[in-house]
Amino acid sequence: MIRSLYIRVVLIFLASVIGGTLISFLLATWIFEDKLNENLQIPMIYFGQDIARIYGTFPLDEANDYVSKMSQLEMYNLRFFNETGQFQTFGELNGFKPAVVTEEHWSRVLDGETVQVNRGVVSTTLVGLPFTMDGERKAMFIEPISPTSNTLAIQFLLNFSIYTLVTGSLVILVATKFLVNPIKKLTDATRHIAGGNFNIRLNIKQKGELGTLAQSFEEMTHDLQQVEQMRRDFVSNVSHEVQSPLTSITGYAKALKQMNIPDQERDRYLNIIISEAERMSKMSDSLLKLSMLESQSQQLQFSTFSLDEQIRRVIVALQPQWSARSISFELQLKSIRIEADHDLLNQVWTNILGNSIKFSGEGSVVTVSIRQDSRNVSIRVTDKGIGISPEDQRRIFERFFKADRSHSRQNGGSGMGLAIVKQIVMLHSGDIRAESEPGSGTSIIVTLPIKPSAEHDR
């Protein structure tokens, strides 16, 4: 079995061209065979008729002398058969081997028939004509010594076809190499990707379908490289986030095994173990929640409700957090009703407002405002906290990312909240972005459609 695409293309081309040429030639020969043979036979018949008139006009000796000096004998060989099968030859053979004339052939001619004997498909070898020589019936056979114009034309076509096939084969060998090389590069690149190497450059400059395929392949490779990096970061982040509480739990559990630990100290160890276990449980729940949102296995439950009222209720639910730090809220909430998943959006406002409270200073103000146009509603939550650096603003919606790790650790953050928020907003066909300056606070802007799109309706 031939596995090389290059060899397959070349063989298919050669088989197609050679087979097509051969079939076309045989078909054309079969169609024009009678016409070609007739064209080849006519000059010899005319020549034979001239010979017969010579022998019918001149005495035998003069006729023989005249015929023997005819220039046509350089092209034709003449043989005169009598009733006994003996024959007389005219013309120099010069190594030419005459065709065999059987008794059947000369007998039929002596009986008055014109006989045509073909050696090839389109080559008349012999023409037999009856004539009278000195009162005796003779059978005259004319045979071409040199190729006729028709034969030369046929040979030319055959040679031309052969040369065309050879030249075409050489061209297709080079052209196929040019076409197959990009595919070989793609095949090699696929093997590298299967081995985990995504740093691939194809350097395919061709246009058309192959160029488009190569460009799409490089884009896919770039995306796979990003996905692979995200996977590695995810594994690293999960390992880091899990390792820290596990280390604390293991350390304090070993400490509890010691004898004569004061009850107050024992209670503190147990509280730390419980706190770390709860943090791991929350992180596990967040991972499961984000996984369900990203896979869209959780169907949105749309209902119509008051958006401003929902935000107010979330602020009231978070009162223990902001009142303990003397943080106040400035609300610019116009009354608006929206069609969305109530529970998921409730989680969005809880996470965003919780972050604003967490990163705001004592006694600061958090501003929440709503703006509306004909199709969308925008919610802006602005705090006066520590702010986010420009390089971190691009990553705050990634899972496990923490712009301020020390602050997050102190408040028990896992870096999953904003990733979940972004996924919920995207499921609602909305958008979320951050505006921030270090030391001047942060604004989170969420834009949502007032009504779900047709895609969600289906």
Report on this model:
This protein has 458 residues and is α+β, with helices and mostly antiparallel strands. The chain has 3 domains: 5-154, Beta-Lactamase; 222-298, Signal transduction histidine kinase, dimerisation/phosphotransfer (DHp) domain (Helix Hairpins, Orthogonal Bundle); 299-457, Heat Shock Protein 90 (2-Layer Sandwich). Helix content is 56%, strand content 17%. The protein contains 13 helices and 12 strands. The chain has helices at 5-57, 60-68, 103-110, 149-194, 208-256, 263-294, 307-317, 319-323, 342-358, 390-393, 405-411, 417-427, 454-457; strands at residues 76-81, 87-90, 115-118, 124-133, 136-144, 302-306, 328-332, 337-341, 365-372, 376-382, 431-437, 441-449. A 5-stranded antiparallel β-sheet has the order 2-1-5-4-3, with helices on both faces. A 5-stranded mixed β-sheet has the order 7-9-10-12-11, with helices on one face. A two-stranded antiparallel ribbon has the order 6-8. Helix 7 crosses helix 9 (342-358) and helix 9 (342-358) packs antiparallel against helix 12 (417-427). It starts with a helix and ends with a helix. The model is unreliable at 405-412 (pLDDT under 50).
